[in-house]
Specification:
Elements: H1 20-34, H2 36-43, H3 65-83, E1 93-94, H4 99-107, H5 117-141, E2 152-153, H6 157-172, E3 184-186, E4 191-193
């Protein structure tokens, strides 16, 4: 006897298998086409704002589990506030300065001593931009919503100018001063090392 025929199951178009590998491209395409993020913002325009300032990851490789988890948590927080009727603009960011990127391209075989500092910085910038695009694509695949059209990236000239203006204000307000504090230096990497 075929027991399947004895069950009174509802008739539905809902598939029994997820088939995510086949469905994901279509889902991502639909989200892009529907402009989901902008629609959420539009729905809550004029309401009280909730701004989550993104402490950005380095653009020095694929997202690792910790960075992905941080971004998912941030997305969860922003969405929760959007569902609570807050206006929630979220601009993802990437840190493109410093040793992690320099180390990453040197591991790829770039010899910084064989070129001018300007050439080396250019190679760092190109590498960082490639990593940003890769990380951004991964975040979109994780289903995160954000203003990916207007991210803040620390190598953008406008961002650097704002940092200099903020430093200027701190200096003029007497918040910047010279004192006694050791600076840890790596003779191998020829750079300052974080004291943490």
């Amino acid at each position: 006897m075929d027991y399947k025929e004895t069950l009174n199951m509802p008739k539905t178009d809902f598939e029994m298998r997820g088939n995510l590998a086949k469905k994901e491209p279509g889902i991502l395409e639909r989200w892009e086409k529907e402009n989901s993020y902008q629609e959420i913002l539009k729905r809550h325009e004029g309401q009280k704002s909730f701004i989550l300032h993104d402490g950005p990851p380095y653009a020095n490789g694929n997202l690792h589990a910790g960075t992905a988890m941080n971004r998912v948590i941030k997305d969860f927080i922003v969405r929760t506030h959007a569902m609570s009727d807050f206006y929630t603009p979220f601009f993802p960011g990437w840190d493109t300065h410093g040793l992690p990127i320099e180390n990453a391209i040197q591991r790829l075989g770039v010899d910084r001593k064989s070129m001018s500092p300007a050439e080396f910085r250019q190679k760092c910038m190109e590498y960082a931009q490639k990593q940003i695009a890769q990380q951004m694509a991964t975040e979109k695949r994780l289903g995160q919503i954000a203003d990916y059209e207007h991210p803040y990236i620390t190598l953008q000239k406008g961002f650097e100018a704002r940092q200099i203006r903020a430093f200027e204000k701190m200096a003029l307000d007497g918040l910047i001063f010279q004192g006694l504090k050791p600076i840890y230096w790596s003779p191998f990497k020829e750079t300052a090392v974080a004291d943490s």
